[in-house]
Design goal:
Layout: E1 2-6, E2 15-21, H1 35-45, E3 48-53, H2 64-78, H3 80-83, E4 85-95, H4 97-112, E5 119-123, H5 134-138, H6 147-158, E6 184-190, H7 196-208, E7 213-218, H8 225-228, H9 233-264
Parallel strand pairs: 2-3, 2-4, 4-5, 5-6, 6-7
Antiparallel strand pairs: 1-3
Helix pairs in contact: 2-4
């Protein structure tokens, strides 16, 4: 497991920390492919980004990719002073399979009681191994991602667990039964994404568990539209919105810390 760190050229005190997890169906992708995106986070949000190059299936099936992400998160927090990161402002974000790992990682960190995650952005996340929602059944072939490719991704990621009833929620977060005490969450998805309905169910369960959630469904948009066609108006709108959501998440923390200090004063 390797990480890439992105920092401003000049630092004036500690900054929020963002762990970024790339997508790729659990079988493709690399941290360096998101270099430009991570640089944008640094510039637009004013944070320090750690991008994790987790090991991929099928050579490394569950739980290795998730444990790599957990190790990266622990490394980021444990080395916060060296990295100039404010441990009171920690976010985890990723797209597609990276979104699935984001959702799984916040569950894992919550249950292991370390590290504390304050904001999560599981963007159009790959979280439901059943692959049998209405939206998955709508998009069975073609497009950038479809039901057939999704089934292959889950088969390679889950390995021997695939098809069983003993799949833990850390492998497929849609299987979780307890979504309480998770961080402020933002996510979005296109209406023509096979993950549409599992995302709708996920945000509904988060809200029912008392988690603060923001969510946007983009009509006419397909899987990973904001990265495949970044100059389109809907892509620019989506990116600006979710980058602003990270800022809002960090601002919420600042407000809570200020209120706590005033209460104890």
């Amino acid at each position: 497991m390797n990480v890439r760190v992105y920092k401003p050229r000049k630092l004036n005190g500690d900054l929020p920390g963002l762990l970024w997890i790339h997508g790729g169906g659990y079988v493709l992708g690399a941290a360096e492919s998101d270099d430009a995106l991570c640089v944008r986070y640094v510039k637009d949000i004013g944070c320090i980004v750690v991008s994790v190059d987790y090991r991929l299936a099928p050579e490394h099936s569950y739980p290795t990719p998730l444990e790599d992400c957990y190790s990266a998160l622990c490394w980021m927090v444990n080395n916060a002073e060296l990295l100039s990161i404010d441990i009171n402002k920690i976010a985890v974000a990723g797209n597609s399979a990276g979104g699935g790992l984001t959702a799984a990682l916040t569950l894992l960190a919550r249950d292991r009681k370390f590290p504390k995650v304050h904001v999560q952005l599981p963007l159009y996340p790959m979280i439901d191994d059943s692959n049998n929602t209405p939206s998955a059944n709508e998009i069975t072939e073609g497009m950038i991602w479809n039901q057939q490719l999704n089934d292959l991704g889950w088969k390679l990621y889950l390995g021997k667990l695939y098809g069983s009833d003993n799949i833990p929620p850390y492998a497929a977060p849609a299987r979780a039964t307890d979504y309480s005490n998770l961080p402020y969450t933002y996510t979005f998805i296109g209406q023509l994404d096979p993950f549409r309905d599992e995302t709708l169910t996920y945000v509904t369960k988060l809200a029912q568990a008392g988690v603060d959630v923001e969510f946007h469904l983009y009509p006419g948009a397909y899987h990973a539209f904001e990265s495949l066609n970044p100059h389109s108006s809907v892509a620019q709108y989506a990116m600006n919105e979710y980058i602003n959501a990270i800022k809002i998440g960090f601002d919420r923390i600042s407000g809570s810390l200020k209120e706590a200090k005033e209460t104890t004063a």
